[in-house]
Amino acid sequence: MSTATRKIALNTGVQVIGKIAVTLVAAISVIILTRYLGATDYGKFNLAISYLSLFSIFADVGLFTIVVREISKEPKKTEEILGNVMTLRLALAVVVILLAGIISLFLPYTPDVRYAILIVGVSVLFGLVNSSMVTVFQARLRMDYAVISDTVGRIVAFLAVVTVAWLNLGFYAIVWTAAIGAFASLLVTYYFARKMVRIRFLRDYKVHKTLLLTALPLGLAVAINQIYFRADIFLLSLFRPYSEVGMYALAAKLLEIILSFAGFFQNSVFPLISRYVANSDARLKSTFQTSFDVLVAAGIPLTVGGVILAPAIIRLAGGAQFAESAGLFQVLIFAITFAFITGLFSYGLIAKEKISVLLWLNLGALAFNVVLNVIFIPIYGAMASAVITSLSEGLIVIAISIFARHLFGYYPSFSRVPRILLAAAVMGVFLWALRDWTVFFLVPAGALLYAGALYLVKGIDMSVVAKLRKST
Is the whole model's pTM more than 0.90, yes or no? Predict the structure, then answer.
């Protein structure tokens, strides 16, 4: 096994373990938050986070991905690029947070929401500096460091949430827990990063300009994509009560947790895809196909299981007061497989330096999403947002796959999808028959049954490891 293959295996394995730990922590945090805050305050809490997230996107402007690409190509420039991007992102973060606070004064928000937005800004500031250093981990295939950092931060934030709830310190204290966790993560990241490169803030305005001009098209594409994905909570807050925002926010949060699982795999593969595209390496095709197969095999059973177990999952996550979230989650979960595939194609376009294509695709999706939300939210409320989100993801994956096929000259094979669907159907029948049982049994049992069925119908390509070895 080559060194690169071992690094990818290590990266992916560590990230799986870390992601499981983080997911468990996030899930328990949601359970505590929903019960402590209730639907209305939970809606306010998530509104503050979603609102600031829309602005924080512009503090990155695509710099993270561009920096990973550049230091992967030219490792000798790592220290220079990292130091300058840290300074640049810090300055952008301060401007964006202040702007977000000012604009919130003109929106129909209560004072506690406006204060919460500023508090969330602190965690965004820490997060942007932290993720600047994480670019080194990704470029050098040491995402295990990033996983450790993220896990520590999430655990610290979780302990802070438990403490606040136990001592009944109130709404603002809950909002501060995110900043506490982000700071803890920053400290751990700095500890690991300084062993690999010299960490310092640099002010080379020529480098700043080059990074901004290079990253701006991608930044706009990513910003538009994130806006359309997060705009639903913002738009809901303009037309519907905070309690309904809270119902939708819980379903969206669970979707976000699931979607994050694709990230660890894509983050490990992206440096290879970038390298193979840059060198016109024939191994790109096998790597792309393998990645596609893995993501589809993960996305389809998550959708099937999510639809069937939604009432039980929501009951566990939020209690009886969030029962309306179950229907929203059942609709949103259809976006999973679409989003997995879209993420892979997006990385391919970025590596191919066809960011303008990604920009226009995301711009079209944003327009589609916002227009329909503005029309239908006042009539149908949160359910309209859920349907529009899943529909938008489906349209994006169709459009981006067409462009990807044109640019790469091939399209991943769907030959294993019927077998994946069959295995997922077997799992689905099992889950439906026992749907009244506890999810603590159904989730692991369903996963094991799916894995076994997938193996029996030969939905698992036993040459995947060999293909990955050849692609590295």
Answer: no
d(CA 92, CA 60): 8
Angle of helix 335-351 relative to helix 63-73, nearest 10 degrees, comes to 50
pLDDT at 431 over 70: yes
| Sequential DSSP letters for 457-471 | TT-S-TTHHHHHHHT
Q: At what angle do helices 283-318 and 417-433 cross, to 10 degrees?
A: 10
Three-state secondary structure call for residue 105: coil
- Find all residues with CB under 8 Å of 312, minimum gap 6, and list them: 435, 438, 439, 442
Asked if residue 286 has pLDDT above 80, the reply is: no
Question: How many whole angstroms separate alpha carbon 199 and alpha carbon 211?
Answer: 18
Q: What is the mean pLDDT of residues 170-195?
A: 93
> Alpha-carbon distance 303 to 330, whole Å?
8
Report the distance separating Cα 126 and Cα 182, nearest Å: 6
Q: How far is CA 338 from CA 101, 198, 236, 266, 327, in A?
A: 34, 40, 23, 14, 19
Confidence band of 274 (pLDDT split at 50, 70, 90): low
d(CA 184, CA 35): 25
CA-CA distance, 293 to 380, in Å (whole number)? 37
Residues 6+ apart with CB under 8 A from 339: 259, 262, 299, 393
**pLDDT tens readout for residues 22-69:** 778 888 999 999 999 998 999 999 999 888 887 877 776 667 777 777
Closest listed residue to residue 259, CA positions, set 289, 220, 303: 303
pLDDT of residue 194: 85
Helix axes 143-167, 3-60, angle to 10 degrees: 50
Measured CA to CA, the distance from residue 31 to residue 27 in angstroms comes to 6
Measured CA to CA, the distance from residue 432 to residue 445 in angstroms comes to 13
Range of the domain at 414: 3-470
CA 31 to chain centre: 20
d(CA 236, CA 424): 34
**Taking residues 67-84, what's their average pLDDT?**
74
- ∠ CA 44-61-364, rounded to 5°: 80
Highest mean pLDDT among 28-32, 267-271, 287-291: 28-32
Please indicate whether residue 237 or residue 62 has the higher confidence score (pLDDT): 237
Phi, psi of 114 (to 5 degrees): -65, -40
Q: What percent of the chain has a predicted confidence (pLDDT) above 90?
A: 35
CA-atom Rg of the chain in angstroms: 22
Contact 385, 248 (CB under 8 A): yes
Count of structural domains, the chain: 1
Single-letter amino acid, residue 404: A
